[in-house]
Fold each of these.
Amino acid sequence: MSIKLNDSWLRELEAEFAKPYMADLKKFLQEEKQNRRVIYPEGKNIFAAFDHTPFDWVKVVILGQDPYHGAGQAHGLSFSVPYGIKPPPSLQNIYKELEQDIPGFRAPAHGNLTAWADQGVLLLNAVLTVRANTAGSHQNKGWEQFTDMAIRKLSDGREHLVFMLWGNYAKQKAALIDATKHLVLTAAHPSPFSAYNGFFGSHHFSKANNYLTEHGKAPVDWQLPDRQA
């Protein structure tokens, strides 16, 4: 695993790469490849969330658990899929909530959320890799320590960010965030199994924009283009 992290994030997280857990994680990923395991996303996209959304640009954090494990789905941004891949059910439900929450929002035909990331929405999975067709296969190997530190750095080093924590796994990360200087929004996960238990009707997207505006920041344009170049 070669590390090529955005410079702004490297300044915050460089010390992590010298810690024992990171060496163990690197060894684990090497063993996966030696055993001919297919890993998603491909190497160049493992740190895509950080590459698209530098530390100083972050306005909103949407936390996922681990990457999609189907062929062609994962590209390093939580809940997002590349062009040409059908939006998964959770993302379809995110679009449904946006249609109810943001006036004029129209669900695109694709599931690529890069336009959000480029506006300052950190689409961060707690675990950054997964074995093909095996959900959760790279959990508890070290990624969580790395991404927890990223959340802590944002909480400590920035002000007036919005954290969207959906589902019980993500809600546990609230302990890492200083709620006195950031907005922490929690709801059920947008999965079809739980979206009707509090994700629909949560209005997180409008609440985020209201909070950003109140604190002198530009709101997020949640409307995704039909396709970016």
Note: The chain has a mean pLDDT of 95.
Amino acid sequence: MKNLLFLLSLTALTFSAFAQTALDETLPVRGISISAPASADVDDFVRFIDQELAPAHFNMLVLLVDWGYAYEKLPELAGELTKTDVKKIVAVCRKHNIAVAPQINLLGHQSWGQTTGKFLTVYPQFDETPHINLAESKVLGNGGDWKDPDFFYCKSYCPLHPEVHKVLFDAIDEITDVFETNWFHAGMDEVTSLADPFCPRCCGRDPAELFAGEVRTIHAHLAQQGKRMMIWGDRLLDCKATGFHNSESSLNNTHRAIDMIPKDILIFDWHYGNAYQSPVYFAFKGFDVVTCPWNSAKVAAEQLEGMLYSRRQASKTFKPHLQGMVITEWSGWEKFRDEYYKKPEKYETGAESVKMLIEWLKKNERD
């Protein structure tokens, strides 16, 4: 009986957070994923939600907060975004029935280029690869690229460290509570550093089991509180079988984890250069999925049409898994804003993709 009630609550969570409009049958999820703005830019960001996203019936905002929030439980990891800032975002999203999902990059993306991220800087004992010196390694910006066999992309934390989850759970609980949400995006993309042979805990273990184990651990913590988990989908795609680039699919066998993780996780299937039809694969595996473009409006339009076509052709059982589109943005709010409002500088942003989706939504609302 408890399991049935839990499943029913998750089903309600999937749909009740979204505004009920004439677009819901066509494209249930209509969202954007972007880094949280700096504290000084929050008012601009709120106006953008109020004046641009809401009138077009966007209904999901994924906000990469990471360690940018002023955590009270973890002051050593705190950033500048205040509780007052967050409440402004919460208020405008509640006003327009936009579901908010804060994101912390978990497992991977604990470094970038030659810079170790805040989490492993504060807690170096959690580093999966402490022997890797980023200043001396072939990393981005230091002579490394994906074709180089010695290329090191990003550090990960060790998922088997006995103390790592207490810290992470404190952060997850605080950030979901302050955003007053039952959604949490755990990141977990581009995890290339896993089961390192020098890690005393992970050495010799199956990367798929390690990845799946970390997903299950985080999922179980969220599920106990009635919260739902989101992750990027790239580590669940087989690079060799698909021919996808090895940033958007797995070369270290984590793809087998797709059969080892809970099915109520919402998958964010990102591809930026092509409109691959991998959302159908995730749906066949029993997951809800959204398609995620970025900086090419042409590719975004093709991904949108692919999602719409798949939903039109799907059975009643299959169709609900194909949830819609969330456009990603990786240049930050300030550059996105300048590009969106046609400031003189030209940036690589998802602004034109967002405009494409806004135009499509407004047209189809009328139709």
Note: The chain has eleven helices and ten strands.
Amino acid sequence: MASCSSPEVIDIERALTRITYLSARARRHERQMAVAGVPLDRAAVALLRQVADSESLRPGELGVEASHVTRTVQRLQKSGYVTRVPDRDDRRAQRVELTDAGGEAIAKVREAGVRGMRMAVSDWSPEELRQLATLFHRMVDEFLAHAVDEEGEPRSAPAGKA
């Protein structure tokens, strides 16, 4: 196992920092939304992705500050991308579900992202792509398994969830 200060770990951290910077750039997001034909800001896309990856979620399960979730869910609901439905287990609570329009929008967003990714890795072999995907998922799972919540307590995420 590599030590915390090994050159490999430092290189990985630098690469992740570069990826984060590149993916968070406003122009990139705007271009991707233009290609997708979906007029959503980054927060709305992130929330829509979360809802799309789940059957339905309570607003508190969306992993964003409550006031931001409320506003973003309201915008997505007003645009017809999500709907609120009663929670089957607790009628006092509501869950957020994707509508057909939301499903179409997230499919367009993902296709625009995949198109850009395909261009970036067009010279990679299928085996290299499989290795990268496997290692990325493993790294995310490890990050989630070793994450520390706001109170400083370690928390675990379900295996295979990224």
Note: The longest strand covers residues 82-86.
Amino acid sequence: MIFNEEHKSQPITKLQVNEAFTRVKANGGSAGVDAVSIEKVKANPRKYLYPLWNRMASGSYFPKPVRQVLIPKGNGEMRPLGIPTVVDRVAQQVIATELESKVDKYFSENSFGYRPNKSAHQAIEQCRINCMKYSWVIDLDIKGFFDNIDHELLLKAVRYYTEDKHILMYVERWLQAPVKLQDGTIKHPQGKGTPQGGVISPILANIFMDIVFDKWISRRNPDNPFERYADDIIVHCRNIKEALRLLEAIKERFRECKLELNRKKSKIVYCRRNQKRQPPFKVRYQKFDFLGFTFKPRMEKKGGKMRMGFSPAISQKSISRITEELRKMKFHRWVHFPISKIATLLKLKIRGWLNYYGKFRKSAMRRLFKVLHVRLTKWIRNKYRRFRRKHWYFAYKHLQGIAKNYPNLFEHWQYQGFSP
């Protein structure tokens, strides 16, 4: 875009807006309440991006309501997700990029969520190492974290890192933006909550939790390592007494900051990594889930010997979620496609599962791929008439023959032990 530069009251440039749109476009996503898609904005930047820059640079920009959609959680409940308009996402990306450059260097090394050069795999690896060093874990789950962040405390946390007026002004406006529910009614925030799904939400959550938890526990309990990914927190302790005392202190800290722990999901877990050593009392929890993986005692080989360890593998919740995703695809009915076409359509999904869940104890994914093979067996019975009146085993044998003759057809067949 070529526009005449002029003096504006806020230090926001056209280049920032253009770069922000490039990132929003790469992330994709649907339209907001105005039904304007990314393609429309891309086709006519003069109509959408130039007015955005003009308003942001002059301080007259106000966001539109956030469109709310409900997505299923692993436990059968629904999670509200807020979708700002594409233009509002660009505006949020402008401020989020500027804010991230100011605050990220001050964040804890134990914070891994939504940060450059940090990943969930790094958090899981650090958690695995600490579980082998410490006998007890506090698995923390914050009740409705994104819905209960106090606006006043959040703005106070942002001011701790920056006094830039345009950042504080626009953050406050986004926090006060109304939400359009699925029935069309408009809901105004009551001084708390930030829509999960907004571009600015992850960096604001990190700023808030850095003050509320990371810096607090590092100052109060420097000998208790932890891993935090957004609002998922794992804290390591040496013994049960230390864990009980620290859990009570964390509850009190969150209460002061107007947050509440989920009592059903927050728990103290014993990291059993030896067959002989056990505490002198009955332990209620000996496993926990973190970022889609289940940590629990497992036999593993080290130095040529089998021993008890405490390591992660894909969780049952993750398997159930992916199984439900496969069920909804109903590809066993795609009889108008050859099996090579089904393999192509599933390729990116399977590769994504392998890249994420296969990082630790890949063999545990066999249960997931058994479900996929059952679906493919159903496809064979629907596709070929000769298998319909026979036992399903004959269709499964046919699938095994395909896997033997074409071992690279499906992405997971290329790994040992994952063929049917």
Note: The CA atoms of residues 41 and 48 lie 6 Å apart.
